[in-house]
Amino acid sequence: MDSVRVDTRRSPPSARRDLIPLKVLVAGGFGAGKTTFVGSVSEIPPLTTEQNMTAMSVGIDDTAAVPDKTTTTVAMDFGRITVDEQLILYLFGTPGQSRFWFMWDELARGAVGAVVLVDLRRSDDCFPAIDYFEDRRLPFVVAANAFPGTGVFADRAVRDALALPQGCPLVRMDAREPRSCMDALVVLVEHALARSLD
Description:
Elements: E1 20-28, H1 34-41, E2 50-52, E3 71-73, E4 77-82, E5 87-93, H2 104-108, E6 111-118, H3 127-135, E7 140-145, H4 155-162, E8 170-173, H5 178-197
Parallel strand pairs: 1-5, 1-6, 6-7, 7-8
Antiparallel strand pairs: 2-3, 4-5
């Protein structure tokens, strides 16, 4: 895993014909860190659809656990990572609120898998994403994002609380740290590859 590095000095992807492009979703509940994840690891300035939250979201978007949150994704986030000479990842961050879930089918089309971000202070918010990918048999990893004030829970306790299927990877990560995000993506690609060989 340590041998995988993001190299932004390479020639543009369009100049290389041997690249393997993989589409990856970054999903999870409202305020779980999806936009931060994409922005942290993308080698290009990420495309975001962040909009200021207004009074219209009062009573709809629960900001109790993330009181400093003032914006929200209304369509998607997009970023790109060149992993090595052959592999390039295109990241699509999904919107977290239920009123935007209708976009998930379009975003998921052609995806190799997903990283489901979880805020362990409000783990119930990740169940719709987990259910979505399980129902569609799309490989995913669950990434417990490091938020201040999160309790310390053993992996077994987290897996049991989230009712994760056997074989679904669980990783600990910090969406603010590029290396941490990259490690989660490597686990996902390895998991998706293993699933494709079953």
